[in-house]
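User: Modeling request: complex.
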Amino acid sequence: MTAPALTTFRRTPLRHLAGVDRLAVAGGVLLGIVVLAALLAPWIAPYPDDGGSATHPLEALLPPSGAHWFGTDQVGRDVLSRVLFGARTSLLIAVAVLAISGVAGVGLGVVAGYAGGWARDVIMRVTDIFLAFPALLLSLALAVVLQPSVTTVIVAIAVTWWPWYARLTASVAASVATRGFVDSARCLGVPAPLIVLRHVLPNSLTPVLVQLSLDGGGVILTAAALSYLGLGAHEPTSEWGLMVQQGQSLFTTDWWVVTFPGLAILVTAFSFNVLGEGLRARLSR
Amino acid sequence: MPRYLIRRLGQAVLVVAGVIVLTFAIMRLVPGDPAVAYAGPKATAAELADARRRFGLDDPLPVQLWNYVRDLLGGDWGTSLHTRQPVRDDLFQAFPASLELVGAALIIALVAGIPLGIAAARYKGRLPDLSVRLSSMLAVSVPVFWLALALQTVFASGLGWFPVAGEYDASLDRTSPLHLYTNITAVDALITGNWPILTSTLAHLVLPALVIAAYPAGVVAQMTRAALIEESSRDHARLERALGFGETAVLTRFALRPALNPVLSLIALVFAYSIVNGFLVEAVFNWPGLGRYAADSIRSLDTPAIAGVTLLVAVLYVVANLAVDLLQGVVDPRVRAR
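Assistant: Request completed. Predicted assembly structure:
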């Protein structure tokens, strides 16, 4: 890490970046590439139809070549195109899960933190119960009883994810609620809901936002695991975990069918983790 | 201490009660009729009605919940629909195998993660630090099922260095049968001096344990590094440097012990996570543990079995948490006051 004096010296954008950890920058760039790939998939994929249900039996299991950089799968679809479309599924799941659990968790957390007393006790005990289930386990149980689909994956993971944000927000909000400006608002007769919305909530958000970016990787890994187990996305959706599952018996003979979707999961989860770590390090300084 | 103990125990009991209710609620959501799954597709109406009565599916929900809790506490965890055996017996058989696998993984994680964390802290900001941080980040980001497939393909199917699947070579059961005491194969083989089965089990353990170890090893290395860096900036470290101790000695002889405290409590929390992560690895390596049992249960919509696995792991997690808190309460009096 470079000396902080340098960063305050000249605040051009590049100088600003120099203060941030190099790994975090790499993570941000990587994540940017994944997001771009997801957004542009229909235009940059060499065979856009292969992201769906198209089949080309005559071109099945071709090794990587100039025409198919990542080879083709068991029904002849271009693996690169499917990996690009898979980025859409994975990022959609990550964004949806983080949004749902973030809103639910922050909402309950800020109420618990501000109100304190029995409301806090009840909400915290409920989060304790949900936290007793490792995320994959509860998602597994839920995904079994719901029909396997991308929506199921989102619901199942969100149900297990919100308590973390509730706990985090509650502890931050509780300390914000004791600050002077909250007291003065109360003395001025501002109604409690307005205090929570206008004063406590905005001042409690930063740590949650950092945590959300740290958790993207975990959501992507859990979603891929559920799909790998056959409890998530199904044919013909392009989904990385599903692609690994469908190709796993071919690993010894046709390595490319499994290798590239797995690498895609690794790279995406890695970029979220590195970026989140970097943000946390920067904000905790 | 007693007051802290009672309060913490009370919380744990409350959480376990909530876990039971939540498990029950999830299982009641099952779209398929468990009675149909049990009686089979060709069952007559009378057989179906009989099955429904047997499982108490005709009773109102609160009654069903009450019966469920009563049976659980009485040691009756229901009957698995696919093995047709008591779920408790199934779990009793499968759990030791998972414990063996995750235990081996956590040992690998500590043995690899702590020295790596020390090296990173010692050479902070330089090449060893960067490579440890990079590799630990990769380790926590890798999808376990994919890593399991990759290692299995390369080192077992391809190079033939390790066995492909299973817990030990089944043909050894005839030549040197294993006497069971703990149900953990490696431990039983060790205490009965059954070397063929012990070496076979250890060879089968290597790959799956390495895969499960990836996540905890990465987390342990990161935590050790962070805790050491913080600890080595304290006053006692400055004093030790002033006394002429080298940087390595300051880290390993003085900073390491206080820094390891949070790392060790972390391990207890990672334990339950690793058990569930192990589900995916067990499926790949055909390891006869909870994961394979869960996978079989999922495939046959075996509600009592899934409920049993879910409950067991959740309770394990609560117990691990409780143990960590109580241990910390003993070690660090400040915790009790919270």
